[in-house]
Design goal:
Immunoglobulin-like, 3-stranded mixed β-sheet, globular
Length: about 160
């Protein structure tokens, strides 16, 4: 009788764990921001967290399956109808597209990417944003950079701090 009870408890725990795992996010995102080449005040395509008004912010991201740990390939993304958007705190949205980077050179990798040019007249300070991944299975994952709610944490490469030129 004890063995039967132990087996039932174990099966219940496995079922609960399975439900908890299934309820988790379908994907996780790895992302960074770099300076774009438009109106750059320094080298482009380098990790930075401080941008000048008029410069271009470029998001680079990769998406991974939480079930397999594998990077979502272009074929998988197409099959899943996957999209990614950067949503700025001012309501602006920027669609990222999946393509090979860099555009020149031999070593290319697939990344989600998009650029946004900071208007010449734009408030200075920390710009909050998030990346939103969706697919045709109804999965939605929102990624936010760490420490964006703590202005003293400027310097993290995933944050966007805007300064006047």
């Amino acid at each position: 009788m004890r063995n039967l009870r132990s087996i039932i408890v174990a099966l219940i725990l496995v079922a609960i764990a399975g439900v908890a795992f299934a309820a988790g996010p379908a994907y996780y995102v790895q992302a960074e921001v770099v300076r774009g080449s438009k109106n750059a005040t320094g080298p482009s395509c380098v990790l930075v967290s401080t941008f000048k008004t008029g410069e271009q912010v470029v998001w680079l991201a990769k998406v991974y399956s939480t079930q397999t740990g594998e990077e979502v390939t272009p074929d998988m993304a197409k099959q899943l109808g996957m999209t990614m958007q950067a949503k700025l705190e001012n309501g602006t949205t920027v669609d990222l597209s999946l393509g090979q980077h860099p555009k020149e050179g031999d070593h290319k990798v697939w990344m989600w990417a998009a650029g946004w040019s900071i208007p010449p007249v734009y408030p200075t300070g920390l710009l909050k944003y998030e990346l939103i991944v969706k697919d045709n299975q109804g999965n939605t994952v929102t990624w936010t950079p760490m420490n964006q709610d703590f202005p003293a944490a400027e310097g993290y490469p995933t944050l966007i701090s805007i300064e006047k030129r």
